[in-house]
Model the fold of this input.
Amino acid sequence: GESVGLHLPTLSVQEGDNSIINCAYSNSASDYFIWYKQESGKGPQFIIDIRSNMDKRQGQRVTVLLNKTVKHLSLQIAATQPGDSAVYFCADPSSGQNFVFGPGTRLSVLP
Amino acid sequence: DAGVIQSPRHEVTEMGQEVTLRCKPISGHNSLFWYRQTMMRGLELLIYFNNNVPIDDSGMPEDRFSAKMPNASFSTLKIQPSEPRDSAVYFCASKQGVDEKLFFGSGTQLSVL
Done:
């Protein structure tokens, strides 16, 4: 079946550096992607989304890039801060009505 | 809007007891999802509803688990009898329409002793 997966389970970055979290998807027909952030003790929270008619979308300190050719998307966080420490999930809701998440990437921000 | 509301926030029970988790989705949302999260298995989809109708319950681990959605503003996830391996954080989430973002509740931390 279709799946959403992450390349790296953990990522450690120095405070102030930029972070890049990657995600691969398998359904070439997917046209909508969402990034979530889950802090310890909380539910996943929406960060940013992108539709397939775009290859880049920017938010506040976050940018999502979509490469449909290789079925890959990434989340870039500029000037990473301690508050960015969390698990990040990508989701591909257009693969079906069920909302399936990959394993997530844990981002640790080092002082 | 208050967001997705789950109760209780924490539940500690003994093996064999019945556990009922509750969820109030965001008003106007027509899809509701139940997830279970553990360190070993990550975030697992248990069941989801569209317009109060269960669509896919293939993620429900076994017959001890059941979920209902009697109306658009309330859903329950019941475990009977509970077992220690059911210990996890259970999340409820809701969304409106297809290809829309999912909003999560704060979760219920379940500990079965």
Notes: The mean pLDDT of chain B is 94. The first strand of chain B starts at residue 5 and ends at 7. The CA atoms of residues 47 and 57 of chain B lie 4 Å apart.
